Amino acid sequence: MIKLYTSPSCSSCRKVKKYFQQYKIPYTEKNILSTPLYREDIYKMLMNSENGFEDIISTRSNAFKEMNVDLNKMKTNELIDFIVQNPSVLKRPIIVTDYEIQVGYNDDDIELFLPPELRDIDCQHCVPEEECDYVKAIKIEGKPA
Description:
By secondary structure, the chain is an alpha+beta fold. It contains six helices and four strands.
C-alpha cells in the first residue's frame, strides 16, 4: 500500500493525489500538520531512503530555520523525536511503499507507482512524446494498447 504524507497548502501534494486518482492507484493519505506522526512513520521513510534524513528534512523550511538545529550534532533518536514534534520540517509530499520512497513530485519518477500493466504503453495513434485521449482512456480502463 502506498502512504502519502502531505500538507494542505502543498501544490506538489495535490499533483500527486490527482495523478493517483487519475490512474486509480490506491493510497492512504496522512496530513502531517493535522494528524500525529509516529516514530514508525519516520523509520519507514528512512528505511527506503538513500541519504537518510537529508532526503526527508527540508533545511530551508521556516520551522527548521527558527529552531536553529544542527542535524550533524543530533543522534538518530533525537532527530526522529524532533521530526515527530515538528512535522513541518519534512519535505512534501513524501510517497512511501514497502520498498520505495519518493520525495516531491516529478513527472517521470511518479510513473514508478503505476501498476506494471500501465507502464510504457505506446500509442500508434498520436504524435510521439504526447499522450492522447486514446492512451489516457486505455490506461484508465486497464486495457492493453
